[in-house]
Design a protein that fits this description.
Helix content: 55-70%
Number of strands: 0
Mean pLDDT: 88
Order of helices and strands: HHHHH
Shape: elongated
Largest sheet: none
Distance between the termini: 70 Å
Structural class: mainly alpha
Low-confidence stretches: none
Length: about 100
């Protein structure tokens, strides 16, 4: 009875060496870090772009900082949000009012 081992022996691909695996891993990690940095840079730009509405800038600011805009019109972080988004405090407060008046999703 013929052995079937000859069919599998020639089909195996050589396994990469340890240094090759580590090099691939380092390259992948570096690429992922570069992509994350680029996404962050784009989000920072989006939060202050004059091409975006106040609502879009504030939503971008919330994503960058991982927080929701406070509901209080006197909260100290509103000044930070205004500076980061290049909006006035009144524009920030107008977005707060709009959110209060719109039905929740």
């Amino acid at each position: 009875m013929p052995s079937g081992s000859w069919m599998f022996g020639t089909m195996e691909t050589p396994r990469p060496s340890y240094p090759d695996v580590m090099k691939d891993h380092r390259e992948r990690v570096a690429l992922e870090a570069a992509e994350a940095a680029e996404r962050h840079r784009q989000e920072i730009a989006e939060q202050s772009s004059a091409l975006n509405s106040a609502e879009m800038r504030i939503r971008a600011w919330e994503r960058v900082h991982g927080v929701r805009l406070p509901e209080s019109a006197t909260h100290p972080v509103l000044a930070v949000a205004a500076a980061d988004t290049h909006l006035t405090l009144e524009e920030i407060r107008e977005e707060q009012r709009r959110r209060r008046e719109s039905p929740r999703r």
